[in-house]
Design goal:
Layout (H helix, E strand, L loop, with lengths): L1 H12 L13 E5 L39 H8 L4 H4 L9 E10 L5 E10 L3 E8 L5 H4 L8 E5 L2 E15 L6 E15 L8 E8 L7 H11 L10
Antiparallel strand pairs: 1-6, 2-3, 3-4, 4-8, 5-6, 6-7, 7-8
Amino acid sequence: MAEQQIADAAESVRQPEKGPSEWGQAVAALVVVGGLAALLLSGTFQQKSSDPEPAECHTSDDARPSKPVSGVQLCTALNRADLPTLLGTPTEYAMNASGNESMGTWADGTKTVTPEAEVQLSTYSVKLSTSDDDIPVVEMAGFLGSSAQNRTIGGHPAVLYSDRTIALNFNLGGGKIDTGPGGIARSLLVAKDTKDGGGFYEVSIWRQDDVVPDDLALLRVAETVLPTVPDWTAG
């Protein structure tokens, strides 16, 4: 189902090709997380680059409330003052910060709400989401490719894996969008409880320059941020 959603999303934005001179320079990245998570445009609130103050968390007007944790709560946990240091870019600051709930529909008509947050810096973008899927994280490793690695974060079973982002090119004049391959995203699926009884958090990072992200940066973010999420269970 997730693969079909991704294909449908790509089809909905596919437009006839235009020459490079006809396209604006605005580019965003979407993370395709192993067919397990929804697509999220990077950032919904733009901070001027000349402003020395980091962006505050923002949510869209139509965000749907979610229990036990909301997208805004995830954004508050992620958009911390030391996030640039955790990422290894201490002189940077958050330019975009957003928290929302995305709605997905399964083949049987069941609707699910996924709280998610994203913070964008000059070098990195970071995404945090949570799911109530009842599949144990250790079982998901088998669906994420041969490079997936089992890890432990705060006593919780976790899986580290890679995926590609999708680059979106926006025509600033005509409002049309073209898609193409992006860079590598590194992601961690972390079980919601130490017994891996179902449900997980996902932390993903990717770079604006398409260089492969630093795994140590991802691990530092996950180990520091997840214990501050309201429904986190200490190991």
